[in-house]
Amino acid sequence: MSEVVADLAVNASTKPRRAREGFAQGLILSGPAIFLAAFCVTPLMLLLQLSFAHHTDGGLWTAGFEFSQYRQLADPTFLRVAAFSLGLAATTAILTVSVAFPAAYFISRMRRRAQVAWLVFILGALSLSEVLIVFAFQVLLSSSGALVKGLVDLRLMASPHSLYPNIGAVMVCLVYLVLPYVILFLYPAVSRLDEEMPQAAATMGASPLRSFFLVTTPLMRGPLVSAAALVVIFTVSAYLTPLVLGRPETWTIGVHLSNTAMDAGDMPLAAAQAVVLVGAIVALLGLVRWIGGGGKAAAA
User: What pLDDT, in 10s, does the model give residues 92-111?
Assistant: First the structure.
């Protein structure tokens, strides 16, 4: 009887404490929730409302509920730009992850002091603004830049000429911009890898390169897919890099959106294009989550 009374007393004392903890957690989480609602959900709702508005002359619009903007998305020019942007983003993601994954792996296998030095160096690269990096690439790839002069001195180029605008310059600059983010994104996951797995593969006769591709890489499938999705999200609507280093035929959907809104003055159509872009990104995130869930289920 005394044990039952004691249990009731303990439960009575813990319920108010749990209620206070739940209230405190809700109060702490209310700040980020309000921030997301104010600066993410609300602009998306306004963008969606604008995409159905009626376009008038002079770059203006009036309230309405029209699907004409979405029907214009079947325009071959927009479809070509969207397909090119997705292809550019996917190629950039493959190149970036292919460089970032081995870099993060080798950094994680260094001594602690060397790891800190490399991570500080990579963080320092993030302090440079995109504008500064893009225009630095413009100077570097110009006909009077150091790279062109070096190629001419090595007789790899007959005469000095600019190495931009072209798709190669755009892609190299995009890889440079997102590479530090991907290395830092993959570093924690790589650091947690069991070092005994490659050693076990080596005892069975696998070379270090074979062990890296057949043992380490499959263990990192989820983070690698997430990193690739991160690069696609960053680069699919890139604006400044393709505008400065590319030609009109290599401009991405970000430049196309700006031209539609500012030059053509069709804000509802630009909003509809942006809504479709956001929907494609959400679908990509859902695909990444599904792939990650499938990997966990297979591992279980």
Answer: 999 999 999 999 999 988 88
The reply to whether 46 falls in a domain is no
212, 117: one domain: yes
Based on the domain organization, do 22 and 75 belong to the same domain? no
Provide the domain limits for residue 13: 1-40
Largest separation between any pair of C-alpha atoms in the chain: 98
21-48 pLDDT tens trace: 666 777 777 777 787 777 777 888 888 8
Interacting residues of 281 by C-beta distance below 8 A, sequence separation 6+: 233, 236
Q: What is the CATH number of the domain that holds 56?
A: 1.10.3720.10
Dist CA 224 CA 219 (whole Å): 10
User: Domain count of the chain?
Assistant: 2
Cβ neighbours of residue 151 closer than 8 Å, sequence gap 6 or more: 157
What does DSSP assign to residue 59? Answer: T
Both tokens of 43, joined, read: 């602009």
Measure the CA–CA gap between 104 and 53, rounded to whole angstroms: 48
Task: Flag whether the pTM goes above 0.85.
Answer: no
